[in-house]
Structures are given as C-alpha cells and as structure tokens.
Amino acid sequence: MPPVSTVNPLAREISAKIVYYGPGLSGKTTSLQRIHASVRPETRGQLVSLSTEGDRTLFFDFLPLTVEQVRGLTLRLQLYTVPGQVFYDATRKLVLNGADGVVFVADSQPAARDTNAESIANLEANLEELGISLSEFPHVLQYNKRDLPDALPVAALRAALNRHGVPELETVASRGFGVLAALKEVTRLVVKDLHARQATRRATPRPLELSGGGSELATQLSAAAEAAAPDDPAALVPVSFARLFPGDAVAIAAVEHAVRHRTFGEAARIAAEAVAAVLSRVPADAGRAAATLGLDDRELLALSQVAAKPDAAVTERDALFALYVLVAAKVKAERT
Fold first, then answer.
1. Residue 28: HSE in the Cβ half-sphere, 13 Å Cα cutoff
2. Do 177 and 270 fall within a single domain?
3. Whether residues 166 and 54 fall in one domain
C-alpha cells in the first residue's frame, strides 16, 4: 500500500513519517540523537529509545519534529529508526509500514560493503511487499563515518547503493556533520511527493488544500478545512493521558501516537508490553499482581488477545481498549 500521511484537523497538522534505514551500527540512532540535540526544544518531542546492551536499536526511536507550514497546515515529521541486524527483519517491516520517506544510512567503512548492500536490498524488498517501488519512493542516501581514514570513496558507495540517482549526503553523525542537511533533503522530497500524490482540483481553492487530482488526503484536507475551529482555543490544545504520569509516560505517549496515526496493532502491542511491565513491578507472588492492583483478569486476557492479532485485524476500538487498560494499570499502581 502507498504511504498515507495523517491529517489532524484540530491541530491543523499533517504528519509525515520518515524512517532511518541501514545496517547495524551505521549511525541511524546517532543521527536521530544529533537531530534531537540540535533543534529547538519547543519544536521537538521526547526521543524514545529501546536498545540492547550493545547500544543497537532494538525497536525504534521516535522524534516528532515540527518543521514548516504546508499550505496552511503544519508539517510534523515523525522520525524513526529500524534495527540494523538481519534477524530483526519483522520489526523493520513494522516500522517501515506507512512511511513517507527514508534516509538510508550507509557505513563508509570498507568492511561494511556487504552489509550496506544487503540492507538496501532488504529495504527494496520490504517496500515491494508494501506495494511500493524504491525507485519512486522519496529517499536519500546518507554516507556516514566520512571522517574515518579508510572511508570508501563516494564514487564506490554511489556505484553500489545509488541505483536510482537520489540525493547523496556525506555525514559524520558522531559530530552532527551533515545530519540536518540529510533530514532537510528528504523532507523536501516528501513534501514534493505529497504535492504530486495528494493534491485536489477545486473551482474555489481553500487555504488548507494542496493542488492537483482527487485523493484520500485531498478529501481529508477538505474535511480539515471545514472541521478545524481556530477561534476555539480548546480545539488547539492536545489532550493526553501521559500528563497524569510526569516522568513515567513514555509507553502511554507511544500508544497514543500509534492510535493517532492509525497503527492500531502497534498501539496494542506497546500497551500490552507496558501493562506487563507494570505488573512485574508489583510486590506480589506470580499470578497475583493483577489482583493486588484490582485489575480485571478478563480485561487483561482480552488485551493479550488483541495484542496477538495480526495488524490488519486490530481495530481502532481495540487500540483504545488497550490504552484504557494501560492507563488503568498505571493509575492503580500509583495508588497501591
């Protein structure tokens, strides 16, 4: 399925998902960390990282970053990385689903020739499973670790990796060199693609519309123009259960993000894992933690069943139920 950006009519935002892809230890996580440290605090969200002891990304890093206005809507970038190791391919597919653009981070070291080639072939194959051709998909190549004395020539990296003639950028992620330039370039391509794919023709254009042919996003944008209420301050204030738990709300924020962006299966899995973590911290014998908190065993069972469903089978109602169980568990854990 082609990428579909998400429109939030109340916040007057359009969200685009950009995934940092590449072999293990190529610099994907470091790139996001540098971006997070470089942008103004008011324009960035919390950087969520789940890593192994070796500091390799196990699931994803998430950085919401507001970057510019697109015809009256704020473009909010959702930045992710994927695990580089080959045995995490299922997770890479999950994170890649719904992406609007990719930054492929290649390792410039000679020893990484094979893993670079394997990773970009894997990217192409996973996109094909989603019905997307890499040749038509917004992506840039970020040649990282250019400060190393044995770094491969750019021409060699180009010959091996850049079969579609996309923009290339040399970076040193450990120092932040070139990282923001790569993000800026892929953002430019994503916006260009949005204009090409998601525009609408109208006799009387409205400020929130893109121009061009009728599409799902164009329909959403028209609805956003009618539904948004800029004169109502309350309509512009985001509401989140995460505010109930200052300093301990990463999981709730991640579930809410997944629900907003309609990745309901992801929301259910994150919620189920977070509830399990809450129960593991309860000082009670195995199997009695739920009773200690006063949680309903039937709801916990239902949550586990929802989390085990294939993504396509998880509904918005399921995801909201998962969020409810997680919030209830955390509230009761605080009171115990």
1. 34
2. no
3. yes
Structure tokens at 28: 């994907």
Q: Do 174 and 30 meet the contact criterion of CB atoms below 8 Å apart?
A: yes
Same domain, 54 and 185: yes
Q: How many domains is the chain partitioned into structurally?
A: 2
All residues at 6 or more sequence positions from 279 whose CB lies less than 8 Å from its CB, including other chains: 289, 290, 293, 329
Widest CA span in the chain: 68
Domain contains 249: yes
3-class state of residue 103 by DSSP: strand
List of residues 6+ apart from 110 with CB closer than 8 A: 150, 152
At 117 the pLDDT is: 97
The pLDDT score that the predictor gives to residue 44 is 82
Cβ–Cβ < 8 Å for 316, 259? yes
- Domain end: 180, 197, 214, which one? 197
Distance between CA 288 and CA 152 in Å, rounded?
Answer: 58
The predicted-structure confidence for 68-81, as pLDDT tens digits, reads as follows 777 667 888 989 99
- In tens, the pLDDT along 2-24 reads 555 666 656 677 888 899 999 98
pLDDT digits (tens, 9 = 90+) for 182-214: 999 999 999 888 877 655 433 334 333 333 333
Is the domain of 14 the same as that of 104?
yes
Q: Same domain for 57 and 160? A: yes
| Structural domain containing residue 133 | 6-197
